[in-house]
């Protein structure tokens, strides 16, 4: 199953670091948060990734192109123009890096990778700036059992993100993006989507969290998977520092692959 990761935004709320690198490349414990997210999926056996690039896309491409240099000891023989990689360890990942445009909105980025997605099975989608300890196998099983087009991992936090109105059967009856009210279940990413969801996306200007999710909710095709465990989005410098502290103290709940 393919995992799509949105990694093309400007990261303006964490501009202290994003002016130098794309937000998904900001490091926690000397590894980009994008790497942490991929390790979570890989732990559950999901190893095929499609990464939607935009802002400073070359930095993410270079990270994967030079992955051995980042993870192994190397001997470089300059006279022979040769490089020998020691203690070679590679992740079991197949990574497709797609430049989805500098100013393309989230929905447009998803639409642009359609050719890399199978048309007969669901795919996973998440954002390149959030970590979580949700059980992805249970999430997928839940999605398959309810038979709707889309499942969002719902987190009970503040109102900085899209707020969900959920009925007794966990169907999302209303999706409201960027509400100012506090509390309630919010969009935590870590979604499972059927290919038909792409039909809800018009073009590059489509914000996925606006018309597509709102219309899926109106059509009764959007389900929530309520997660009461750990979730954290690296939206600001303060968020980054909190994640870094958890990692440094060996108290990172998303570190499930250790």
What does this 3D model show about the protein?
By secondary structure, this protein is an alpha/beta fold. It is 26% helix and 27% strand. The strands form 4 sheets. Strands 1, 4, 7, 8, 10, 11, 12, 13, 14 and 15 form a 10-stranded mixed β-sheet that branches. The protein has a two-stranded antiparallel ribbon with strand order 2-3. A two-stranded antiparallel sheet has the order 5-6. Strand 2 (27-28) and strand 3 form a beta hairpin. The model has no long low-confidence stretch (mean pLDDT 91).
Keywords:
single chain; 258 residues; alpha/beta; ten-stranded mixed beta sheet; two-stranded antiparallel sheet; 8 helices; 16 strands; 27% strand
Brief rundown of the structure:
26% of the residues lie in helices and 27% in strands.
What is the ordering of alpha helices and beta strands? Answer: EHEEHEHHEEEHEEHEEEEEHEEH
Strand % is 25-35%
Total strands: the figure is: 16
Low-confidence stretches: none
Rg, Å, rounded? 19 Å
Number of helices: 8
For the biggest sheet, the summary is: 10 strands, mixed
List the helices and strands and how they pair.
Elements: E1 2-7, H1 15-18, E2 27-28, E3 31-32, H2 33-43, E4 48-53, H3 57-65, H4 67-71, E5 74-77, E6 82-85, E7 94-99, H5 106-112, E8 123-127, E9 130-132, H6 136-146, E10 150-156, E11 163-166, E12 172-176, E13 185-187, E14 191-193, H7 211-218, E15 222-227, E16 231-233, H8 237-248
Parallel strand pairs: 1-4, 1-8, 4-7, 10-15
Antiparallel strand pairs: 2-3, 5-6, 8-14, 9-16, 10-13, 10-14, 11-12, 11-13
